[in-house]
UniProtKB/TrEMBL annotation, chains A, B, C, D:
<feature type="active site" description="Nucleophile">
    <location>
        <position position="9"/>
    </location>
</feature>
<feature type="binding site">
    <location>
        <position position="478"/>
    </location>
    <ligand>
        <name>[4Fe-4S] cluster</name>
    </ligand>
</feature>
<dbReference type="GO" id="GO:0009113">
    <property type="term" value="P:purine nucleobase biosynthetic process"/>
</dbReference>
<keyword id="KW-0479">Metal-binding</keyword>
<feature type="binding site">
    <location>
        <position position="259"/>
    </location>
    <ligand>
        <name>[4Fe-4S] cluster</name>
    </ligand>
</feature>
<keyword id="KW-0411">Iron-sulfur</keyword>
<feature type="binding site">
    <location>
        <position position="383"/>
    </location>
    <ligand>
        <name>Mg(2+)</name>
    </ligand>
</feature>
<dbReference type="InterPro" id="IPR029057">
    <property type="entry name" value="PRTase-like"/>
</dbReference>
<keyword id="KW-0808">Transferase</keyword>
<keyword id="KW-0408">Iron</keyword>
<feature type="domain" description="Glutamine amidotransferase type-2">
    <location>
        <begin position="9"/>
        <end position="236"/>
    </location>
</feature>
<feature type="binding site">
    <location>
        <position position="475"/>
    </location>
    <ligand>
        <name>[4Fe-4S] cluster</name>
    </ligand>
</feature>
<dbReference type="Pfam" id="PF13522">
    <property type="entry name" value="GATase_6"/>
</dbReference>
<keyword id="KW-0315">Glutamine amidotransferase</keyword>
<dbReference type="GO" id="GO:0004044">
    <property type="term" value="F:amidophosphoribosyltransferase activity"/>
</dbReference>
<dbReference type="InterPro" id="IPR005854">
    <property type="entry name" value="PurF"/>
</dbReference>
<dbReference type="GO" id="GO:0006189">
    <property type="term" value="P:'de novo' IMP biosynthetic process"/>
</dbReference>
Length: 499, 499, 499, 499
């Protein structure tokens, strides 16, 4: 797996609103789970005195709350009726370079352009190599900067034509928000890997990675930006100015392939993505889990202990409830309990000699409720297992409260392969499923449970499609190794960077 | 109500352990919910070269994670086999004075002494007046500093005797951890207002406000420090050195009066305090709520909608579950659902003109899960209502998801009076129950619900006593105005401070 | 020598002026040479709403320019028509304690009091011991805090009486500026060790360590505060309110003993102190140096090289000019030249292995002008030699520019003994004069010059008295070991500190 | 005048030395007067493990002392045997962009390259326009970045050939230090506008803007880098590896035109630049001033007061001494005195309503020595007058000390025109000489002196040439409007910047 930055990100954009920057702030805040490393907002306004467009930008490392810690930023600095914003989480060393914090903004011969990007380009290496040969210098290792160079090098007449020409050349996963001198542009790649929704507030259009960003500003959800759609809105509109749509041709003739992992883990349960409530889909995962692994079958025959179902909070709560309710519906004895308490103040973990870093990390993040667990048959529901080490320590911790049995249910299939479309997993060798040759019994032993069950790949897809009123194709590559768009590797560590 | 600082606090202490500071760090981290404003640790060791005891102290504003952000603090700075730590939250302006960050440490003619305090002295004004007349100068407005001056002015021979003489002079609520030159001392006031538990890890004794601090360091809970007990432990013990106990006489012949609000809201559900698991007690509050307000009676007669019970996460989760399970047990249709999502990234809220600060704050902190709420009869369970404004906006938000009905259940009685023993409430005039003359119907209208029900004061006490295997007396002053220890008011804003 | 802090300091005070804080800022800025470690200003105003006096204080480590880096500090924070300010330099570890930054401010039963102090108390140990026995707690190791405790413990009726009672109990060197609730008080100890001048600007009185602080605010010099004088001014005066004077009795019947080293090195040449211009006195030191060591006698007989006189900039410039002009007046060939350039950007010095810290420090601070020095007989004039190591490296550096000869003239006698009255010198063993048993030839060899000459103690005193229109007694203890006030040593490292 | 950044700068480079970064630090420190806004160092080493060259860079806003405040920077971060460094002062808003802090470093297809630049390109606009048309994006508004793009776009085979091809395309003023993967390259433009000297220390070559940077590291001055010379040195040399020289063709057939203002004001007096000691040249300016304006002619006839000559410290000290010594040599009565004291702690100036910013700034920076000035005929020597406002307030201040007469001598001609080669002056309209139509009497009246005299342009050039053992051509454009290289204006504020 290449070590270039592969970002989780949240993006937001809004046009034609007097509080554009402030609403973007709240949008980013509600998307904080998609990236806690850095945040930024760019606005746009026409300066009457200087007779030109200005795009003020405020960006920094840190949570949205810390990057924008002064009301004056919105009032005095980030002026304008259009804004875009970006949250980012990166796992590579490149994350330390402030030049990698988005939105990126550029002033070139056609005017200003700003961009925020969620996803990963599949042909970044080829594009970068081409520019390198010409002698073009970069200031970051980010895929996103490539899009700006493509736009700037385009010899088309208008900014919009340049953007379209640039997008024809990139492949892979990208949801984008852009500001040109007078437009707000929202883009979703032809496969529709990453989500992007369209909303409306006070008569102004807004776009966001998830609809929870609409709720916080009291905006109404309209529809998703379509896979391959380039949605163009005026920054400052007259009454009836409507967005215009352009469509990108899929490079590889592929179908829609929306990231199914957004439903499994990544998105917030109160969001609607890919056209459906995450809560509803995730609840259905629990239901399918109950079908594939009824609670009675989980328990060892001899047990007389009443089973309880607990979730690993907070991401697995809904799937666990779905599991419980389905079992109850089918007449099986099954009770939802809160057996794990999560400490939401999380930071660096210090260890003393002989201690294990990851063990202490688990203990710092979770604690058990002894009275709930003691003497019971405990069914833990979690959304996924990556390395397995955390699960192991979690089980160890639960065992200390003396349960009768411990079973582990996962509301998705084993993760066996990396994601090249914007989600970050460790190397294949580090994945638990690979370390134990996908042998479930060995994996159960590794994490120390009486039994371990996964939702099947078919179960996953069916559960998602059943819950979704308008299902499309999904990317399940991390569970199936079935990659919808080919990827190029081997990008060098340092590109043509000025630093 | 006087505006002097009244602190929520968490305290921790440990003796005779090679990782004393590190374990104190984890203890404080797990007590973070008791005070997010500042944190500090003091350790103690005998410097062979200087031939005297040294008490290194590291304190600052901020979360435990930020105050101690470098492993070297524990290794190189905070040396010693004994340590005490303190988390603090203060609501007064005095909070900005770094001199108010605990532990306080003093070097005086008998040696070093350090102290961390949870609670509020009831006779602080008299003590302060006495010192002021003498011309003694203070460096903070904290009650805690008074205890140090009492110790330092004592003409007794030993530090322990001085501590005991000082404690005989103070009244009110105080749980204390102290380090003298060779002892760790843990104290609980004769009324036992605030919790303090004794634990053991690797053969070393430790004390903490709540037992969740023991779990994180894998310590075993031994027993509570008794009301009025002064527990004295050697900093560095030989094998069989056991703690010695001294007992303070209650000033006013009062009985034990442990803060019942710790069970209602303040303590973590995974902690054991006052000898019982908070989860168990809180679940019993839900059970009593079900007895006093069965779900059937809540609903309007004509409704055909299936009722769901949702909690205001995370503090009301357990009471809500208790309510659901009791109703189910009694054969009533009742379902626990997750209808509110809490965003744990919380900080400053910015508003645009015309917006309401508190409304935006609620929207920043919570979001509804529309699919869960729409068309249902929703029973919200919350642990308490203070001003009522937050509840109102929360209900507004829920109403936007189109429930059929909205009912509000509170797992404690109406708050009608301030706490003078270490818990912070707004002025009596700001409390919702007082603003509406304790008229429940008016209060229901104010927060916009179809019905509002509180647990009765008797229900509260009975629920707590039933759940607790060894119940003692409780202070319920904030619900009943029945104050176990008289309080003196009118302390001036600025004492004899050197600043 | 005890290692308790012994401070260089600059103090300033002003009453009845609308820009009290801003003028104090400029006063402190011009006194920056007296203390670069920390700075602070306290003002005083009557808050009509709160019906009490408030004394806002702004203090921090750093230069005056950095501590007060925002105009708003003067406008919004430091309100009031009276202000005092303090610059400080301390050599002890205690310097790291922010509690040691002055002015100190206290609120006690009689009101507010603030104090800024230049000097060192001779009986600090006795006073501290007395308080320690009582159990009084300190927050700093500073002598100055003792004065506040003495005032606060006084049972007199008025603040002024309390101040006078407190001052009767302290001995040693102290120039003070104080604010009580409605007075500005300026004090000079009975010996008059440290300077303090009275000025007037826009009808308001001001006091300052040196008159350069008057020039920067366009104030007029009136007279010195007299030794033993307690000058009391209203904070907000009516038209004709004049200062009142009280006088302290000298403890030991001693005469005036003003610090002669202020003239030699410490004060700015453009200041008037002890009633006379420093430039004039320092020029006279050069003249007496010319009398005791005429330039002809300095040079070796065989030399044919034209002699040049260079100073170690900037503190020795005036004495060097005085030396040159007197020699010229007496018909001796003598030329003033600039042979050393000083780099005023000075900070930490880094060294590579094998390098000498102090050597690099000299090279970082000074450079020679080769064209001036090459082939000439160079007479270096410096104001004093302390350890001698710096002089040695300076001479080494000059030698690299190939002078014919190098002679070293010092415009004061050898330093042989510590100062206990507010000036900081290294331990007696480190002083060059002591290391070489006061043997001038050995000292010349040590610093590598062809000859070394000092001004005699008598020459020093006569030069000062001749230049001064109203000469008084001077303290020459560092040159003569003749201490006018006895000093007590042995204060412990840590007093009764709350920290 | 265009408002693009026009930098004062100091540059330094060294090859083949174990303490390359540390020596560069000291070099930059001694060049601090050439730029106080930001500082940076880049080193270069071959990483055996990664098998590639690494160029660590440490840069920030602030003084050299603050940017490099930790010894570890030199030991652990800035590894390598070759280093370049850069100090910068910029007057434009662009100064706030951290991307403008040099050295710039780039990694491109041929390897690493780093660059530090003193000067201004005359054809920056054309170069930038050409790149803009292609769509190349910039990250700064700096001329220096253009050079990097030229190198990166060159299709030559080696880094050295690319550098040479790039330099053939730039015009104007540039002294450069560069690191390629294995070379240290020092360049001076064909006109030789800005200085650059070659030195040697411990067998290693070093280059610096002024030789004071050699003195501080005990390096020996070898010779100047020649106008048009590209001096190439191995980063890590074998014993006898000598620098190789390449020469650039002058674009416009112009002759050498070294900046004469470096001698007048900018360089340090202890430096050798353009082959001669600044002190010697500056002293000759004083001598020519005495020839053109003998002291007798300055004084009004009726005066009986003894004249004194004072300088505006520190930059005019040497010229003032030269003036005095020449007058004395010619038998005229003339005495050098120190009449102005400069406060070297300078920062922001705060004003109260009604005060003049610049007046307070002068008073904050200078004070008079009253005893020196009172009753005397005072001749002030200053190196130059720009706006004249500072001079006016200085004269006002001197007048307050009651001199008999005040005359003003300037050791250079009136400044009448901007510099486009790296020196910063205000707009032509702001220059005093232009505001008064170059009428000397009006200018004298403006600054409030009895007479005002300038050195003539011929006097300036003759004085410089007489003092210089190997004189070359000089640029005197700011005094004469005679520009040796044509300049293109009109660069837009914002180039193709990614920010």
């Amino acid at each position: 797996m290449t070590d270039k930055p592969r970002d989780y990100c949240g993006i937001f954009g809004i046009q034609n609103h007097p509080d554009a920057a402030l609403l973007t702030y709240y949008g980013l805040h509600s998307l904080q789970h998609r990236g806690q490393e850095s945040a930024g907002i760019t606005t746009s306004y026409f300066d009457e005195e200087e007779e030109r467009w200005i795009m003020p930008t405020h960006r920094d490392f840190g949570l949205v709350l810390n990057v924008f810690d002064d009301q004056n930023i919105f009032k005095e600095e980030l002026k304008g009726r259009a804004a875009i914003g970006h949250n980012r989480y990166s796992t590579s060393g490149a994350s330390k370079n402030p030049a990698n914090i988005q939105p990126f903004r550029v002033h070139y011969r056609k005017g200003n352009i700003a961009i925020g990007h969620n996803g990963n380009l599949a042909n970044a290496k080829q594009l970068r190599d081409r520019f390198r040969e010409e002698g073009v210098l970069f200031q970051s290792t980010s895929d996103t900067e490539l899009i700006l160079h493509l736009i700037s090098h385009s010899q088309k007449d208008t900014q919009l034509e340049q953007v379209l020409e640039a997008l024809e050349q990139v492949e892979g996963a990208y949801s984008l928000v852009m500001l040109t001198d007078d437009k707000l542009i929202a883009v979703r790649d032809p496969n529709g890997f990453r989500p992007l929704a369209l909303g409306k507030v006070d008569g102004s259009y807004c776009v966001a990675s998830e609809t929870c960003a609409f709720d916080i500003i009291d905006a109404e959800y309209i529809r998703d930006v379509e896979p391959g759609e380039v949605l163009v809105m005026d920054q400052e509109s007259d009454a009836d100015s409507e967005p215009e749509s352009y469509f990108l041709e899929p490079e590889h003739g592929t179908d829609t392939s929306q990231c199914i992992f957004e439903y499994v883990y990544f998105s917030r349960p109160d969001s609607k993505i890919f056209g459906e409530n995450v809560d509803k889909v995730r609840r259905n995962l629990g239901k399918y889990l109950a079908k594939e692994h009824p609670i009675d079958e989980m328990l060892t025959k001899e047990t007389k202990h009443k089973p309880i179902v607990i979730s690993v909070p907070d991401s697995s709560n809904t799937a666990a409830l779905g599991y419980v309710h389905e079992n109850q519906k089918l007449g099986r004895e099954c009770k939802f309990e809160i057996g794990l308490i999560r400490n939401h103040y999380v930071g660096r973990t210090f260890i003393s000699p002989g201690q294990k870093q990851r063990e202490q990390k688990v203990r710092t993040k979770f604690n058990t409720v002894q009275g709930v667990i003691e003497g019971r048959s405990v069914i833990i529901v979690d959304d996924s297992i990556v390395r397995g080490t955390t699960s192991r320590y979690l089980v160890d911790m639960i065992r200390k409260s003396n349960p009768a049995e411990v079973h582990f249910l996962v509301s998705s299939p084993p993760i066996i392969s990396p994601c090249y479309y914007g989600m970050d997993f460790p190397t294949p060798e580090e994945l638990m499923a690979n370390r134990y040759d996908r042998n479930i019994d060995d994996m159960a032993e590794e994490i120390g449970v009486d039994s371990l069950c996964y939702l099947s790949p078919d179960g996953l897809v069916n559960a998602v499609k059943e819950a979704n009123v308008s299902p499309k194709g999904y990317c399940t590559a991390c569970f199936t190794e079935d990659y919808p768009v080919p990827v190029n590797f081997g990008v060098e560590k340092e590109a043509n960077e000025i630093i």
